[in-house]
């Protein structure tokens, strides 16, 4: 792993302690999952759910797929119908679980007084594309169809996620547009994984950076896209899997995109924002200096992470047309 002169010192200290993960084979993948699960357990143990109601619901899977678990978080004592964020966790399509993302979801519920539908999608390589995307789309369809009984405002649904979850969110939004699915009010993408081709300047500059290096990035795409994947030159990759491959981005909802300065995915994120703008989509793009991929999760208490999270909450507030209590 390489650190870079521009890296925020608080983040550099956290990056130095992050272990290298090698998921080349099943032994390495299982070891990486143990590391991820142990870190997750420690983080979850420190979460407070005071003032937040958590209900687990099931959405029917698409086709013969199993039901999809959704963790529905709501602020206690706040009457509905509530706007909702359909949330997808990160983990390179191969690691993690929904509750890992609740360090952020809980802040959304408490600060914005809205609901979060946190999706437990299946992981690759056991379930390659389109399985995880199908799970997210099934969750979206269920939340929209059952909005009244769930206390959800069906006209104010945001879809978002971080890293791989951001890629799944972008694919879900594209699919909803193409299939005439649930109307989506806002798209919320944090360092999203959008392109398997890794052909940008930032992909080369930060190939040996923390958390997400070039080797790991290549492996997660291989596992997500399945054994038939022929590599970056494969013309058969679905835009629902790698949204940067979509040729038409028109008609998508207003979007907020977070790019981290020292992230191999930075240029993919910026280029996607530019293409959305050129397609007539309203976009807010935020690039955070001195940060790297996943730094807000790895070092949540760092000043840069606190600032980034505050801006994310503000963006969701604007995107879902919520009233800022400080403005009253």
Can you describe what's shown?
The chain is of the alpha/beta class and 328 residues long. It has one domain: Rossmann fold (3-Layer(aba) Sandwich), CATH 3.40.50.1820. It contains eleven helices and eight strands. It has helices at 9-16, 26-45, 102-112, 131-145, 147-150, 164-179, 201-205, 214-225, 266-278, 295-298, 303-319, and strands spanning 52-59, 68-75, 82-88, 115-120, 152-162, 186-190, 255-260, 283-288. It has an eight-stranded mixed beta sheet with strand order 1-2-4-3-5-6-7-8, sandwiched between helices. Strand 5 (152-162), helix 6 and strand 6 (186-190) form a beta-alpha-beta unit. Helix 4 (131-145) packs across helix 6. The chain is globular and about 50 Å long. The protein starts with 8 loop residues before the first helix and ends in a 9-residue tail after the last helix. The mean pLDDT is 95.
């Amino acid at each position: 792993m390489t650190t870079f002169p521009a890296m925020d010192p608080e983040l550099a200290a956290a990056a130095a302690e992050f272990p290298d993960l090698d998921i080349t084979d099943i032994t390495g993948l299982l070891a990486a999952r143990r590391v991820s699960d142990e870190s997750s357990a420690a983080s979850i143990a420190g979460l407070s759910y005071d003032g937040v109601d958590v209900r687990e619901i099931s959405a029917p899977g698409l086709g013969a797929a199993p039901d999809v678990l959704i963790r529905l978080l709501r602020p206690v004592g706040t009457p509905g119908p509530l706007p909702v964020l359909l949330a997808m966790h990160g983990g390179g399509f191969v690691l993690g679980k929904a509750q890992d993302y609740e360090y952020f979801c809980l802040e959304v519920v408490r600060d914005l007084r809205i609901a979060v539908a946190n999706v437990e999608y299946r992981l690759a390589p056991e379930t390659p594309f389109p399985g995880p995307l199908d799970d997210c789309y099934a969750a979206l369809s269920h939340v929209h169809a059952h909005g009244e009984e769930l206390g959800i405002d069906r006209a104010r649904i945001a879809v978002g996620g971080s890293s791989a979850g951001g890629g799944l969110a972008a694919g879900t939004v594209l699919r909803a547009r193409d299939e005439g699915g649930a109307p989506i009010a806002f798209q919320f993408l944090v360092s999203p994984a959008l392109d398997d081709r890794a052909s940008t300047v930032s992909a080369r500059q930060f190939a040996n950076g923390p958390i997400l290096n070039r080797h790991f990035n290549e492996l997660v795409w291989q596992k997500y896209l399945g054994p038939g994947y022929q590599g970056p030159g494969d013309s058969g990759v679905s835009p629902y899997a790698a949204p940067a491959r979509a040729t038409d981005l028109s008609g998508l909802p207003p979007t907020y995109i977070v790019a981290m300065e020292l992230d191999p995915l930075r240029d993919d994120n910026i280029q996607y924002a530019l293409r959305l703008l050129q397609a007539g989509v309203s976009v807010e793009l935020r690039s955070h200096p001195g940060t790297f991929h996943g730094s807000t999760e790895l070092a949540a208490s760092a000043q840069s992470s606190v600032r980034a999270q505050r801006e994310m909450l503000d963006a969701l507030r604007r995107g879902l047309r919520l009233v800022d209590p400080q403005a009253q």
